[in-house]
Amino acid sequence: MAKLRFGVLGTAKIAREKVIPPMQRATRCEVVAIASRDVAQARQVAGRLGIARVHEGYEALLAEPEVDAVYVPLPNHLHLPWSTRAAEAGKHVLCEKPIGLTAAEAEALIAVRNRTGVRIQEAFMVRTHPQWLEARRLVRSGRIGELKAICGHFSYRLTDPANIRNVAAWGGGGLLDIGCYPITTARFVTGQEPRRVAALIERDPVLGIDRLGSVLLDLAGVQAIFTYATQLVPRQTMQFVGTEARLEVEIPFTAPIDRPCRLFLYDGAGQGGTVTETIEIPTCDQYGVMADAFAAAILDGTEQPIPLEDSLANMRAIDAVARAAEHGTWERP
Q1: Which is the most buried residue in 267, 274, 279, 325, by most CB within 10 A?
Q2: DSSP-derived pairing of the beta strands 196-203 and 69-72
């Protein structure tokens, strides 16, 4: 079976610990090269992960004919320029989320895709995870009755000023890092785009990044509300509340790879606090599932799981959240 040959731009932690290993185990992918400006670091990572070729500098990897596609795990502010350079070198691109810093950057990448003819995709791994496919199916099938409300939370605690997620100039901050997850999953399950959004955001007085945000999305009859935070105790949940039952995705975003994921259904018994059905999703690694789906779109011509138009819609919602918090008004994406 044909495989898509990936090169990796950089040795970021998410690449070496979360993404490259499952890509190597995937059925439609192989990682053949890695590049870094620090070639010694690249050699160390390549040796540990069994990657055949190492390049000093990203340009050298983009010039390699044995690479079909690149994975871009660079800091957020480098997503647009290096995805563009990769596409212009004739490589397909799987870029870490967010696809860019703004909707304007997503629009620029659509123009790049149209000009070069390559596939470009945002690496939103939750969108191809079987637990989210099942959550969407359950909601749309009417299993919880009419969906009326979505409630979510995603937080972690990170105060290291040197961490790229805390560097405002590099696109750090909670909204682009984790606030984007409840937005994309709410859009995915409902199939609706927010008509308007409201938000309250708190910024770190020293780092300048947004560290706490509460968001309300008006999704054509469904009200979605969630909180994200980068300096609170870690927690995550997504719940979909209907007229007949409530669906909870137990670990919605950092899905475990060593045990099944679980979806819980609650009806009205016990004031809605009693689980009436538990649905187990077989163990998988969402990064490998994502990479295989992207590879299949290129190798087999199947539908691309997350087209750039979807990423643009998500970035428009994110931009609207930022404006709503700044202006203290409802904003339309």
Answers
A1: 325
A2: unpaired
Instruction: Indicate the domain borders of the chain.
Output: 4-123, 127-287+315-327
Fold classification of 4-123 is Rossmann fold (3.40.50)
Indicate which residues carry an active-site annotation: 97
Question: 39-45: which pairs have CB atoms within 8 A and are 24 or more residues apart?
Answer: 41/11, 42/11, 45/11, 45/16
Per-residue pLDDT of the chain (333 residues; tens, 9 = 90+): 799 999 999 999 999 999 999 999 999 999 999 999 999 999 999 999 999 999 999 999 999 999 999 999 999 999 999 999 999 999 999 999 999 999 999 999 999 999 999 999 999 999 999 999 999 999 999 999 999 999 999 999 999 999 999 999 999 999 999 999 999 999 999 999 999 999 999 999 999 999 999 999 999 999 999 999 999 999 999 999 999 999 999 999 999 999 999 999 999 777 778 899 999 999 999 999 999 999 999 999 999 999 999 999 999 999 999 999 999 999 999
Tell me how far apart the alpha carbons of residues 322 and 102 are, in angstroms, rounded to a whole number: 10
**CATH of the domain spanning 127-287+315-327, picked from 3.30.420.10, 3.30.360.10, 1.25.40.390, 3.40.190.10:** 3.30.360.10
